[in-house]
Amino acid sequence: MHEFKDRTAVITGAASGIGLALAQRAAREGMRLVLADIDEAKLAEVARTLPLPPDALLARRVDVSREADIAALAEEAFDRFGAVHLLCNNAGVGLTRLSWELTTADWEWILGVNLWSVVHAIHHFVPRMLAQEGESHVVNTASVAGLLSTPAMAAYNVSKHGVVTLSETLYTELAAQNARIGVSVLCPAWVPTAIHTSERNRQERFGTAEPPSAASAAYHERLSHAVKSGRLTADDMANAVFDAVAEKRFYIIPHSRIKQAVRLRMEDILEDRNPTPI
Ligand SMILES: NC(=O)c1ccc[n+]([C@@H]2O[C@H](COP(=O)([O-])OP(=O)(O)OC[C@H]3O[C@@H](n4cnc5c(N)ncnc54)[C@H](O)[C@@H]3O)[C@@H](O)[C@H]2O)c1
Question: Could you say which of 156, 171, 219, 251 is catalytic?
Answer without folding.
Answer: 156
